[in-house]
Amino acid sequence: MAREEPIVSLDRVTLNYGDGAPVLKNVSLLLYKGSFHFLTGDSGAGKTSFLRLLYMGITHFSGKFTIFGQDMSTIDPGERCKFRQRIGVVFQDFNLLDHLTVLENVALPLKVIGNPELQREHQAKEILDWVGLGNCFNAYPNTLSGGQKQRVAIARAVITRPDILLADEPTGNVDEAIANKLMGLFYGMHRIGACVVVATHYRQFVDKFHYNELHIDHRHIIDGSPPQRDPRK
Q: What is the DSSP-derived secondary structure letter of residue 172?
């Protein structure tokens, strides 16, 4: 049987901002469908930059970066937008739209891909109930706490069941009980086939869940890749 093709491939990729020292240097890495990775490293090590690269938010790099079988150095902007629809992202600053309600923010990715309004509303309500925000459908982002905004951003990121889910410190603004529930949501995405990358400084989570660890150290990514197992067993 032929080996499955990686969903993401980086071959000696170096990332610079302007003329400064590289943020990431000579990164070679393969990520596969249905894999789960914690991304760790000191503050300022480049975790957010790496996630931005995977989201195709950074286009100036050297080396070869392939995602969904497409070489990112040759892709046109229209194709890049199409591929981004297959990626869910949880940003540290949430990136919620203040003029939309919580329900509208979460349903927005479904609107972009053309799902009917009633279907969008039903799915958004369902996932908001799951993350404990069933009483916030009609609230606006500026009325929410940081932890509530975080959960809205996560609900929006997973609602389309993306092929890749990227989360930047997703448990940083919530208590441990909610953090564990959110990890359960990420686990569910992984189980249905998404490639999940969670950037975190929370060592207890990394040690608790036993997923692969990608560690950024001195601009290089060290892939621990221990055998993955179901942490609930």
A: T
Nearest CA-CA partner of 110 in 34, 162, 185, 32: 162
Q: What is the pLDDT of residue 121?
A: 96
> Any bridge partners for residue 196, and if so which?
36, 165
CA 103, CA 175: separation in Å to the nearest integer?
Answer: 23
Q: Give CA–CA dist 10/14, Å, rounded.
A: 10
Q: How far apart are CA 26 and CA 113, in angstroms?
A: 36
The SS3 of residue 69 is coil
Domain residue extents for the chain:
1-86+162-233, 97-160
Give the CATH fold of the 1-86+162-233 domain: Rossmann fold (3.40.50)
Q: What is the mean pLDDT of each run of 10 residues along the chain (233 residues)?
A: 79 86 92 95 92 90 94 88 92 92 96 94 95 94 93 94 95 82 89 94 85 93 63 41
